[in-house]
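Pilot study result, target chain (64 residues):
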Amino acid sequence: MKWSESQRAELARQYARIGYVAGERWPAPPSELTPAQLLALLQRVPDGAGRAGYEAALADAGQP
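Predicted structure:
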C-alpha cells in the first residue's frame, strides 16, 4: 500500500482522534483496503471510541 505524506498525516490524526495510545497493539486493517478506503473507515469511528470503536469499524469494513 503506497501512502502519500498527506495521507500519513491524516492517518495519524484519525488514530489520535479515536483514542489510539502509542504502544498499544491494535489489529491491523484489512490489507485489501486502499489508503483512501482506510481513512474513510476511520472517519466513521466516533471521537474517543478507542480500540472497541476501531474493531467495530473493522468488522463492518466491507459494508456500507
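One observation from the pilot: Residues 5-18 form the longest helix (14 residues). A full batch analysis is planned for the follow-on phase.
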